[in-house]
Design brief:
343 residues, D-Maltodextrin-Binding Protein, domain 2, 6-stranded mixed beta sheet, 4-stranded mixed beta sheet, 12 strands
Length: 343
């Protein structure tokens, strides 16, 4: 009896171990730049819940600044913990260049315009988006009209923007200032002057909205999808773009990109999640719930949020940075930013 009991115990232990392993594998881990879970309801929760209901796979979601998302994946390269990453440019391009993501072709890839996705399949747009700034509509009579107005001493200690090189929107702030001022040298001169009013560095852009809403800050940077989503909980937030010396207000596309982590511990589940989030059903809720712009060419929103998004951008010129050049110069530009601002 002892012999058979021992055999049974071993068999039972093996079965439980196998069952536990199978259960442990029914998970997918996503590292994401902040924004997907802003607002109530929000797109992240609704889509992750729907994914789990459809597949039985639990989503483990970890949020941080765009640069920190990539830094964490890089630190874990020898023992990857994430399966999927979502981040802003140029950080996704950096992930691809540094071997942190691997090519994958989503099931419905042809619905995503070829010029908006990586030709080698390392990343795809998940939600189309644009850089913006925000202000407190209660404390101010209207938005600051120009970049030069932000240098006014009345904004001392009332402006904060996230840190270039750490936050995607902070990097975008630096890129837009270069464009608005006409050159990098002029842009750095401007950022040096702006530092007199700047509160200081912030690794996450998403945290700035609550400060603006409460009046701790009057102005901060952000992106349209995230800030529009945050308005439901922060009623004093307003979106704006200041004009340059020629009177032109401008911005550029700042999509959330999605990619499969190289060596992902649950790569099959990661691929399923990417397919799910890029599916027509999921993308049809991007404007109505996420308050962003869908990436599929066969999704044509008509909801009120989509109309508001276009209303925000009326009269704003859209241009496109060369993200490969931004990435190439990023380390040098961030070092110079730290030097001129003393941050």
């Amino acid at each position: 009896m002892k012999r058979y009991s021992a055999i049974f115990a071993v068999a039972l232990g093996a079965a439980l171990a196998t069952a536990g392993l199978a259960q442990a594998e029914e998970v997918v881990t996503i590292y994401a730049a902040d924004g997907l879970k802003d607002g109530k309801p929000n797109w992240g929760d609704t889509q992750f819940d729907a994914f789990t209901k459809a597949t039985g796979i639990k989503v483990q979601y970890i949020e941080s600044g765009s640069g920190e998302v990539i830094n964490r994946v890089e630190r874990e390269k020898t023992n990857p913990q994430a399966d999927v990453i979502v981040t802003l440019p140029p950080f996704m391009q950096k992930a691809a260049a540094d071997g942190m993501v691997e090519p994958y072709t989503p099931a419905e890839v042809n619905a995503i315009p070829a010029n908006e996705r990586d030709p080698k399949g390392y990343w795809y747009p998940l939600i189309n988006n644009y850089f913006c700034l925000i202000y407190n509509g209660s404390a101010l009579q209207g938005p600051p009209k120009t970049w030069d107005e932000l240098l006014d001493p009345k904004y001392k200690g009332k402006i904060q923007y996230s840190t270039p090189g750490q936050a995607g929107d902070g990097t975008a702030m630096m890129v837009l200032v270069f464009h608005a001022m006409g050159s990098k040298d002029a842009g750095f001169d401007y950022l040096k002057k702006l530092q007199a009013n700047n509160v200081g560095p912030s690794s996450s852009t998403g945290k700035l909205a609550a400060k603006v809403n409460k009046g701790e800050l009057y102005v901060a940077n952000g992106d349209m999808q995230m800030n529009f989503s945050q308005m439901s909980d922060n009623p004093n937030l307003r979106i704006f773009w200041p004009a340059d010396a020629k009177g032109q207000r401008s911005t550029f596309s700042l999509p959330y990109y999605i990619g499969l982590v190289k060596g992902a511990p649950h790569a099959a589940n990661g691929k399923k999640l990417i397919d799910f989030l890029l599916s027509k059903n999921a993308q049809e809720t991007v404007s109505s719930i996420a308050r962003g712009i869908p990436v599929r060419s066969d999704v044509k929103p008509t909801d009120e949020n989509f109309r508001k998004l276009h209303g925000f951008m009326e009269g704003v010129t859209i241009w496109m940075p060369n993200w490969d050049e931004v990435l190439r110069d990023l380390s040098k530009d961030v070092a110079r930013w730290h030097e001129v601002t003393g941050s």
